[in-house]
Amino acid sequence: MVVHEKITIAKAINASLRASMEADPKVLVMGEDVGKLGGVFRVTDGLQKDFGEDRVIDTPLAESGIVGTAIGLALRGYRPVVEIQFDGFVFPAYDQIVTQLAKMHARALGKVKVPVVIRIPYAGGIGAVEHHSESPEALFAHVAGLKIVTPSNSSDAYWMLQQAIAGDDPVIYFEPKRRYHDKSRLDTESIPDPLHKARVTQSGSDLTLAAYGPMVKVCLDVAKVAAEEGKSVEVVDLRSLSPIDFDTLQSSVQKTGRLVVVHEAPVFFGAGAEIAARITERCFYHLEAPVLRVGGFHSPYPPSRLEDEYLPGLDRVLDAVDRALAY
Known about the structure:
327 residues, alpha/beta, seven-stranded mixed sheet
């Protein structure tokens, strides 16, 4: 068994790309500055040196062209892994993703597969300028034909990316950029959970917190503080947003009777709305309180000096926990 006591999420993704490229010569990495620079977050550092410029490709600054090229490569039997440098840069490629990539399989009546993985560093917390701290996951989860996943720790970052690359469906792989340097254990020989399986990361009996990506750590911190106050909070890491593992979430809510959904994206029309509606339908007779949502405000992402006020933090989530438990 190979166990790393601690490895950052960024290094886990790098190791995952390396493992996938070693296992399959058809796996390509492409994007802006992914080669010589190793990416702006150095996630692809060293890959071009080891695999060459034909497999780790520095592209022009043209997201629509990058994704369009990846679609063409996938149709010729390759497995491209595209990096969108920052979340807010993906929108020039939105048409290619939702009009072509997501629909190609259905349009061809299942005869064509398009195994493209699009890596997107997303969400805030790094003090960046405009267009560098977006959370567009709900825009993609709404589109049939795309799978949407996001890890919250190094082990998931390592395994989920390899699973996404090995599959035959297009996958949007959201990377929580402010967690890139968070460290956690990684066992490179363990059996990973299924790609779209949610995980109970903290057991509890009074209330369920559901989160994904960067907010999982916040919710685990909330659970610790709540425990000091005599409240037992269960934390569910959703891991996947399309599809969502509602069965795991339902089992948790049937036990606790309360649910608070937490994400960085704006609450308005966010992923939490779909989760709240589904769980209300599934668990109506088990709920002791309405499903509450905590997220960003319905406004453009603010300047870096204000992002601490914008991002859901410990106090805002604890307030929702208290409100749910007060019913």
